[in-house]
Amino acid sequence: MFLSRVAISDFRTFPIDFSLELTPGPGVTLIVGQNGLGKSTFFEALEWCLTGQVKRLSDLPTEGSKKADFLARRLPDGKEAAKYGVELTFQPQAAVKFARWREKDGTAFKATIDPSESDLISALKAPTWKEPILALGSYLRLTHFLSQAGEQRFAVQDSKDRWSALEAPAGTERLNRLRERLGNRGVTSAFNRRAKEAQDAINNAEQAVKNWDELIERRNHARRIAESGGAVSQAELLPQLEMLRVDIAGHFGDFQFTEPSSPEACIRQIATRLDGLRPSLAGRVEAAKSLEPAPRQWRQAMDDIAKGNAVQSARQTQVVDATMTIDRLQFQIAEEDGHLKQVDASLEEIARGRSRLTRIATARSSLEELLIRERALAERISLAEVELARVSATARNLFTLADDQRRLEREYASATDRSEAVRELQNLYTRFLRAEGDAKDADSKLSDIRLQTQGIDKEVQEIERDRLRHTQSLHDCDQRLQRLRFQATTIESCVASLASVITEEDTHCPLCSTEFAAGELKKLVNAAASTSNDGLSAAEAAIENVREAIRLVEERAAIVASKQLQRDRASKNAAAARATADALQATLRLHQFIASSPAGIAIENRVATLQAAAKMRLDELTSSLRGSISAAERDKTATDAEVNKRSAESTLHELKEELAALRISRQEYEAILEPASQIGDDTARLSSELAKLAESEGSLLTTQEARSKKLAALSVQLRAAVTTRQSLESELLSASHHASELQRLLDILRISWNKSGFKGDPSAEALQLGLDEIAERQKRLAEFEARNRTLLEGHSSWSKAEEFGNLQKQITETVQHLECSSEEGARPALDRALGAARAQAQQATDARLFRDQMIDKLGAEARQYANKVLAPLNSLNESFLRVFSCFSNLSVSMGAKTQQTSVKLEFVLRWLAGSAESGTAASIRHFLSEGQLSALSVSLLLSMSTAYRWSQWRALILDDPLQHNDVIHATSFIEVLRNLVRYQGYQVLLSTHDLELADFIRRKMEAAEVDCKTCQFLGTRQTGVKYKVT
Q: From the record, what ranges are coiled-coil (predicted)?
C-alpha cells in the first residue's frame, strides 16, 4: 500500500484547505522551499496523524505554554483555530483513510480519531509480521521517519531509549518483560521482606536460646556464691572503700566517688581508676626503655659537632686564600687583554691604509680602459640607428599588402560556412524522412501487441484478489503458529527450570506451596517438561501450503507483468518515434534558410537553389585568391621583417645601456682618484708608502703573538684557581649540612627525653632512677587492685543469696510459657523452634535463588538473541556507510549490553590503521562530526527499514537529510534512494531547502524512469502556506 493523499487543516502554519496528491506507488516526492515556510511542519503533520504526537515538540519544556495548544494554527486575529486535523489516504488497494482531529470544546481541545488506532495498525501491518505492534509511533520512528532535529535521531538517543525503540521489532520484548516482572522492585521487595521476616524469626529464636543459657548460668553461679560464704554487708563495705580511695589518692592523685552511697558504683569507679593507671605506667616503662641508646647517641653527636666545627674553620681559611688568588689573576688577565686590544686597533689602521693605496692604483689603470671602450660604443650606436630605420620601412610595406589579402580570405571563409550550412540542412531533411518511416513502423507494431494483450487487465485484477486472499490466510496461520510457539516456549522453559531444582525428596511446590507425596511432585514436573505441543506441526504445515499457493500466484503475476512491460515498451517506442519525427519537422520549418524563403516553394527546391548559389560564390573567390601568395609565405615574410626590426631595436637598446653603465663606472673611479691627488702621480711614492706599512705590521704581529701566549697561561691558572675554590666551597657546604643534621639529632633526643618525664641532658644515671620509680608505682597499683577485688567478692557473696531466688522464679515462668513438663525439656523446645525458623529461611533463600537463576537464564537468552538480531543490522549499516563515503578509517557498530532488568544499545567505534584496529564504546557525539552523525542516522534508518519489513507501507519520510553533507555524500545518498525505489518499491517523501539539489534529484530520478513529483513552498500569507506542485 502507498500514501496517495495528504490533507491538512489549520495545523500550525498550514491553511484550512491544504491538500497534496501523491502517486500511489513507488516514487519520490520532493518538498522544496526556504527555511521557515513549513517543510518540517508538513512532516510533523504526518507524524502527529499516525502517532498522536510530535516527538520533537513533546520533549521540549512546556513552561509558559501549558495552557496553549501549540499545534493549532494562529489566525490573522491572533486567536487559535477552533479545529485542526490531518487526513491520510492510502492506496492502491481499497482506499484506507485515517484522520485525526482536535476540536475546541470550551477552553480545551477534544480529540477524535477515525478509524481507531488498532484499525490503522491492522491496515499497516504486513501479513508476514509475527510480533504484536503495541506502540505504532516507536515502529514508525524506527523505520519510516527521519526528523530534522538531531536530538530526535536514533544515533544520538540515550542507550536505553535506543534499545527500547528496537526491542519490539527485534523480538526480545517478550523475554525482557519476563525479566522485568521477575526482577522488578515489587517482586524484589517481597523476596527481601520474606527473607527479613525469616531472619528476624531466626534471630529471635537464637536470642531465646542464648537468654535461657545465660539464665541457667547466672542461677548456678548465684547458687555457688551463696553457698561459699565470706559475705560483706553494705554497712561494712562503704568505710573500707573510702579508706582504699584515700590510699589511691595519696599515690596517684585525688579523685572523689560520683555515687558515694552505692557500693557497686564505688567499686566500679575504683576499678576504672586503676585500669586507667596501668596503661599509663606501662607506656612510661616502654618509653624509658626506648631511651636506653639516647645517652650514648648524645655523647657521640657532641664529639662529631666539635670535629665538624674545626673542619669548617680550616676550609673557610682556604676559601679566602683561593679568592685572593683568583682576584689577582683576573686583574693580570684584564691588563693583558687591554694591551692586545691596542695592538689589534693598530693592525686594523694599517690594513685600512694599505687598502686605500691599492684602490688608488687600480682606479688609475681602469679609468684609461673605460675611456677607450666608451668611444667604441658611441660609433656602434650610430650604425645601429641607421639599420633600425631601414628595417622599419620594409615592415610597414609588408603589413599593408597582408591586410588586403586577409579581407579576401574572410569573404571566402564566409562563403564556405554558408555552403556547409546548406549541406547540414540537406542532412536534416534526410533524417526527417527516415524518422517519419520509423514512426509508421512503430505504430504498426503497437497495434499488433495491443491485439495480443486484450483482456490482460481483468487477469491482473483476478491475480490481485487471489494474492490478497492468500496473504490474509498466511497472516492468520502465522499468528496462530506464533501464539502456539510462544505458549510452548514459555511454559516449557519455566517447567524445565522447575524440574532442574526439584528432587525426589521434595514434597512442597515452590510456587503454590501445595503438598505432595515424596517423589510424586518430581514425576509431575518431569511429565510436564517432556510434553510437546502437537498443534505446532499442523500449523507449520498449513503455512507451507499457503506459501505454495502464494508462489503460484506470484508466478502468474510475473508472466502478466512481462506482457504489460512488453506493451508499455512498445507504446513508449511508438511515442518516442513520433516525437522524433515531429521534432525534426519543427526544426526544419524553423531553420533560417527555410523560414526566410517565399511561400509556396517546396523544401527540396529551396535546398537545391541554396546549394547552387553557394557554389557560384565560392568559385569567384577562388579565382581572386589564386594569383596571390599563400598566407603562410605572406605571414612568414611579415614575421621576418618584424623580427629584424625587433632585433635592431634590441641591439640599439643594449648598446645604450652598456654606454650608460660605462659612464657610471667612470664617475666612480674619478670619485676615488679625486681625494688621492695630494699623493701625485708618482708610482714610486705609492710603493714607498706600502713598504712602510708592511714593516710596521710585522712588528705589531710579533708583539700580538707574545701577549696572546701570556694571556693563555694566565687563563689556565685562573681556571685551576676557580676549580680549587669550588671544591673547597663544596666541602664547606657538606660540613655545614652535617653539622645541621647533628644539631637536629640533639634537638630530637632532648625533646624525647623531656617528653618521657626526664630533665636535663640524657644520661644513664637519670634513666635508671626513672625506671626504679615506675616499678615502685606499679607495685602499689597491684596492691590496690587486690584490695578492690576482695571487697567486690565479699559484696557479691552477700548479694547473690537474694539473686538466686529471683533467677529460679524466672526459670519456672519460662518453663511454663514453653508448655514443658520440666526444666530439662525447655532447651530442646527452644532448639526445635530455632530449627523451624531456619527451615523457613532456607525455603525463602531457595525461592529467591530460583528467581535469580531464571533472570540470568532469560538475560542470557535475550543477550544471545539480541546479538543475532544486531549482526545483520550491523552488516547493513556498514554497507550503507561505505556507500556514503564519509567514514574512511572508522567503522561504527551496535552492541547490546544486558543488565539485571534492562538492556542498553551502545555504539562501538573502531579506528582502522592497516591491519590493526582499536575500538571503544563511547559517546559517538564526542568523536563524529555533524556530517558523520547525519550519515549514521540515515544509514541506521535505511538498515532498520530494510531489515524490519513489518509494514505494507514501504516508505521513507526524510526531513532535510542532506543539510550537513557535501556533494559526494549527497550523490551517494540519492543513488541509494533511487535503487530503493526501483528495486524495493519504496515511496519516499524528502524535503530540502536547496533548489539546485532538488532539481538534481529530480533529474537523477527521471533518468532512471522513477516517478518524481515536486511540491515547492513559495511563501506564507494570512490564509496559510502558498505552494505549487509540478
A: 188-215, 536-587, 638-672
